[in-house]
Design brief:
alpha/beta; 5-stranded parallel beta sheet; 14 helices
């Protein structure tokens, strides 16, 4: 039996998009042992998916090395393109190490093909590594199983917020890696005001340390908006999304979590490319207004952030209506 290590991506959205790769490895090596090393947020996702025999949460570099060496891995798969991941794989003692030749790390790997062109969806980025090892890629979209405890935690959070399952929208105004990906908070507030006549209660969802973004939305809204997510892990938040009618999000982890549980998503794109990172697996409406510099992938906009500011509240309302089949004139949703 081969013992296999998978070093996971760092961000929630990237972790969700890696789930088909984890499925492909499990399908090909059904009888082998697979361990995933991940940061805390992604770790919850891999535990819920259930394909790994063990999920280790990253600690310090030295502690991670000791934990990996103790498990005597035969093989390591590197999903991040970083030097850190390559050093971990090398120091783990795994005799076979597969990852793309990025960040001048090829000498640390035994199998290091050139990285794929950035012209297809990120879901397909790892197909080259899989084929190198003779593993057929999994072409189905990401799917996230919600364990019963996470589902119960989500129901409790939704009930405490005064929301009714299947009759509320979740607004996700944050983005962990780049503020340029954020639609203005006052527009999220205006969207909540506009969705009320459609019968939707609205909640704001943020992650740990993002309470200030939720407060900025709440200050501009006409009615109080409950805030969800700061005390939930990624899978519990996905379970909340599974109870919602629609999720409206920047290009960030919540958009991918929502799609992975089948909830319709309205996603805002400006400095990033939906051809690379659009949510997959559920009905999705992409709203983007590319301007002369898009997509720039910058974390600070040197201009006026037109790519996001040209996405109007009216565009977002219409996208919600299209996804859910409701309008402001639908009498069945005239209350609540």
């Amino acid at each position: 039996m081969t013992s296999r290590l998978v070093i996971a991506p760092n961000w929630i959205g990237d972790a969700v998009m890696s789930l088909p790769t984890i499925r492909a490895l499990r399908r090909q090596y059904a009888g082998d042992r697979m361990t995933v090393l991940a940061r805390p947020g992604p770790a919850a996702i891999y535990r819920a998916q259930g394909d790994a025999n063990e999920v280790l949460v990253r600690a310090s570099f030295s502690a991670d090395v000791l934990a990996l060496r103790a498990r005597r891995f035969d093989e390591a798969w590197l999903l991040p393109n970083s030097m850190r991941a390559a050093l971990l794989a090398f120091l783990s003692g795994a005799s076979r190490r597969l990852g793309y030749a990025t960040d001048r790390r090829g000498w640390l790997l035994t199998h290091a093909p050139p990285p794929p062109p950035q012209t297809r969806h990120q879901l397909r980025d790892y197909d080259g590594l899989l084929r190198l090892a003779g593993v057929p890629p999994d072409v189905d979209p990401p799917r996230l199983r919600i364990p019963d405890p996470a589902a119960q935690r989500a129901r409790e959070a939704v009930s405490a917020a005064g929301l009714t399952p299947a009759q509320f929208a979740v607004l996700c105004p944050a983005s962990a890696s780049a503020g340029t990906k954020r639609w203005p908070p006052e527009r999220f507030a205006s969207l909540a005001d506009r969705l009320a006549p459609l019968g939707y209660g609205c909640a704001v969802a943020v992650g740990p340390g993002e309470g200030g973004v939720a407060e900025a939305v709440g200050r501009s809204a006409h009615a109080a908006l409950p805030v969800l997510g700061e005390d939930l892990d990624a899978v519990e938040l996905a379970a909340v999304f599974g109870l919602a009618r629609v999720v409206v999000s920047n290009d960030s982890g919540p958009a991918h979590l929502a799609a992975a549980v089948g909830t319709p998503v309205v996603a805002f794109f400006g400095p990033t490319d939906p051809g690379r990172t659009a949510p997959s697996g559920a009905p999705v409406r992409i709203l983007d207004r590319y301007v002369f510099c898009s997509p720039c992938f910058l974390e600070v906009c040197p201009y006026g952030h037109e790519c996001m500011r040209e996405i109007t509240v009216e565009m977002a309302v219409r996208a919600v209506e299209e996804l859910t089949g409701t309008t402001a004139w639908d009498p069945s949703l005239s209350s609540g």
